[in-house]
What does this fold into?
Amino acid sequence: KAGVTQTPRYLIKTRGQQVTLSCSPISGHRSVSWYQQTPGQGLQFLFEYFSETQRNKGNFPGRFSGRQFSNSRSEMNVSTLELGDSALYLCASSLQATNEKLFFGSGTQLSVL
Amino acid sequence: KQEVTQIPAALSVPEGENLVLNCSFTDSAIYNLQWFRQDPGKGLTSLLLIQSSQREQTSGRLNASLDKSSGRSTLYIAASQPGDSATYLCAVMDSNYQLIWGAGTKLIIKP
It folds into this structure.
């Protein structure tokens, strides 16, 4: 059974650009959640999608958005990138809800120059 | 506002020792508490999930306890091995169904 796949693995962007990250959950998993990890702030919850609907959202500005497709694959988008957006972005999937065991991808390392 | 603290921030012990990692949280209104490990350059691996109604969970050499009233959890690792070296993260699911994370304990097991 394939695990959670995140692409790309590494990304370098410049300030002001936008970026789209992709996450393919484990087959059969319908909940996908996203997290940002930085050395200063640690891990923080971004948002969670279930059945193509955003079910929960963390305390991030509107520049951070996401969506989920009918096959449960999810994308997150960050517009007007800032230096502080440099981070490891992790996605996790679970069967139905985030209060179940989570399976994480290896993450996308985003560097904003 | 829920806050999660992990002590110590780093720990280095010889192989074979039993050890305890600590996690504390400020608000007892949680749905569950989870322990994860993170290896360099990799994502997170779920180790144990304790629902709010449970007191402990065990998996192999790992045992995690939860005391909601005191806002504490401990992860006990028996007979530590070099392969246990990693960063261990504690997270609580708060009343808004959001995971609030501790900063982690970096564990090094010396052969």
About this structure: Chain A has a mean pLDDT of 95.
